[in-house]
Amino acid sequence: MTTFERTWTVRFSDTDPFGIAHYPRIIDALHETADMFMEELGFPFWEISIDHGFGLPLVEIDMEFERPMEAGDDIEISVIPTLGTRSLRFDYVARKDGEVTFTGHETRVCASKDEVSSRDIPDDLREAIEPYIEE
């Protein structure tokens, strides 16, 4: 299995008045991680609707916090994808110095650009994601 990881450095602007990273900025970090992952696969979110005629809109997101993160912390975020027939789930694990800071997931549905309906995930995207799937 191939793993996708990236480092998110918590900035002062990512923190609340107590100096702890707050959830809207963590959601931004997750979205940015998904963007980076999809770009690595060759399917950047900003191109798939134009080049492939479908999109992957977000239908669910959830997080569970284990310990606080402060400005200056380097957080390693890993993505573990799960493929459904018409949906894609990204599970996230975030760590600081090897300790889990939060976990989360988001679910995206594969949707046709020209119709208001879901569709099967295309074979080329499925093939690009498969090496990252946990067995």
Number of strands: 7
Mean pLDDT: 94
Distance between the termini: 8 Å
* Principal-axis shape: elongated
- The gyration radius over C-alpha positions equals 16 Å
Can you give the helix content as a percent range?
Answer: 25-40%
Class computed from helices, strands and strand pairing: alpha+beta
The description of the largest β-sheet is: 5 strands, antiparallel
CATH class equals: Alpha Beta
Give me the number of helical elements: 3
Q: Which H/E pattern describes the elements?
A: EHHEEEEEEH
Strand order of the largest sheet: 1-4-5-6-3
Total domain count: 1
| Proportion in β-strands | 35-45%
Instruction: List segments where confidence is low: pLDDT < 50 over at least 5 consecutive residues.
Output: none
Would you identify the CATH H-level superfamily? Answer: Hotdog Thioesterase
Keywords: Hydrolase
Family: Belongs to the 4-hydroxybenzoyl-CoA thioesterase family.
Protein name: Acyl-CoA thioesterase
GO molecular function: hydrolase activity
How would you summarize what this structure contains?
One of its GO terms (molecular function) is hydrolase activity. The protein has three helices and seven strands; from the N terminus they run E-H-H-E-E-E-E-E-E-H. It is α+β, with helices and mostly antiparallel strands and 135 residues long.
